[in-house]
Design a protein that fits this description.
The protein has helices at 13-24, 27-35, 67-77, 137-153, 176-179, 183-192, 214-234, 241-248, 254-265, 271-287, 297-306, 312-316, 355-365, 384-409; strands at residues 47-53, 57-62, 81-88, 105-107, 110-115, 159-163, 168-173, 322-323, 338-339. It is of the alpha+beta class.
Length: 415
């Protein structure tokens, strides 16, 4: 099923971007985020930004000392894409004046990139960059699982979730402990969260022990709650022979595989009936102690079809660049907006504001004069609730800066 269309025309992007960057990009909150309260000093000026301009012209090692510098350069360049990189030992724009060995990436948020393309072997509605209502629940499940694990298992608090503008989601873990993680630490967390393993040529990609780790059990609970509505009803994942044979390939015992295949060819002629029988056979297999291999077969299947598929390479490198929030996706025109993980079920990617929509809304509302600074231009458009989500995230982050500033200055502040 192809992706839903909207009224956005990509050929208009060069005309719309200057208006967006002049009037609608939320420079204040954006700067506040990346400056981290000025703790430590010079943090932002050592941060790398990269710009992708029209015709795929790519400029790396941009850096800015002030919000004003950042605004002026973005408005001058009108990038089609902004990527955010690491905080370096020296200002990135001066990297050519520093010996290569001395110019080192020191810190960056721990980031995760979940892309719908990586689920192509387990979704029947779309492929590649396309998404629809039938496969988007995979992203909802991914956000719920990863958000819970990062908060409960690792104790991280400041997670910024962002819609990528087309087919996926990004997570920025902004706690100081996360930003200071080494490559080894980042790799360990990414591997801990990776359950679906193996490339295209590997059929069975999830293997669980008899008594899985508590984190895996929590993930199974999240998937189980949604599996029937998503996999059985929306995806009809055992609806025909090709589909149910994919599931049967995951059954390690020839005996049970043959029983299921015979039933599936007969009266068990819907995904619902086939899945109910599959669950029953898994239970029978356990009861008879026949489940030495894959004792949690039902859970393995659910996780293979629904567990988040992470690009580990994005997460493990301190120096990896990731698309910035509030970019415009050039193909869809959608703004890369922050997502509230607690309300992920009500987040609709197809309702995300496009650049053409918000520029039109701004034109209808009329622009705000300099004397009315309390009302930002973006607050007169459908971008307002998205920036509200961002500001809520920032208010939590700000409290951690205040604590850090008190600690550094050794001054007791009254609240």
């Amino acid at each position: 099923m192809p992706e839903k269309t909207n009224a956005y025309d990509p050929t208009c992007l060069p005309d719309l971007l200057p208006i967006y960057y002049k009037k609608l990009f939320p420079y204040g909150p954006y700067f506040k985020w990346l400056n981290y309260g000025g703790v430590p000093k010079g943090y932002l000026s050592r941060r790398e930004f990269s710009f992708t301009l029209k015709d795929d012209i790519y400029i790396r090692y941009q850096s800015f000392s002030t919000q004003d510098e950042l605004e002026k350069e973005i408005q001058k360049r009108c990038p089609y894409k902004i990527d955010i990189g690491a905080v370096f030992s020296h200002r990135p724009r001066e990297h050519k004046t520093v010996k290569a060995a001395a110019f080192q990436a020191q810190e960056k948020e721990l980031v995760f990139d979940i892309d719908m393309t990586d689920y192509d072997d387990v979704r029947s509605c779309c492929s590649g960059a396309d998404i629809c209502d039938r496969c988007w629940p995979l992203m909802q499940i991914a956000v719920k699982i990863i958000d819970r694990a990062l908060r409960d298992d690792f104790g991280f608090e400041h997670l910024l979730w962002v819609y990528s503008g087309r087919r996926g989601v990004h997570c920025w873990v902004c706690d100081e402990t996360a930003r200071k993680l080494s490559q080894t630490g980042r790799t360990a967390i990414a591997e801990y969260l990776s359950v679906v393993k193996g490339g295209e040529n590997q059929t069975k990609k999830v293997g669980l022990e008899e008594n899985p780790h508590p984190s895996i059990k929590c993930s199974v609970d999240i998937v189980r709650e949604r599996f029937k509505d998503y996999a059985v009803k929306l995806q009809d994942f055992m609806g025909d022979e090709d589909q149910y044979m994919k599931v049967l390939q995951l059954v390690p015992d020839e005996k049970y595989r043959a029983i299921l295949e015979k039933e599936f060819e007969g009266k068990m002629d819907t995904s619902n009936k086939r899945w109910l029988l599959f669950v029953k056979i898994c239970e029978d297999r356990r009861q008879k102690s026949d489940a030495k291999r894959s004792p949690n077969l039902e859970d393995e299947v659910m996780l293979q079809y629904c567990y988040p598929r992470l690009d580990v390479n994005v997460s493990k490198g301190v120096n990896h660049l990731l698309k910035s929030p509030f970019c415009i996706h050039p193909k869809t025109g959608r703004v890369c907006v922050p997502i509230d993980p607690e309300n992920i079920d009500s987040f609709d990617p197809f309702a995300v504001p496009t650049i053409s929509t918000i520029v039109e809304e701004l034109n209808k509302a009329g622009t705000v004069g300099d004397d009315e600074k309390k009302v930002r231009d973006y607050n007169m458009t459908s971008l307002k609730p998205c920036i509200h989500v961002f500001n809520r995230f920032l208010s939590g982050l700000e409290k951690s800066w205040q604590g850090k500033m008190i600690e550094q200055s050794d001054i007791k502040m009254e609240f």
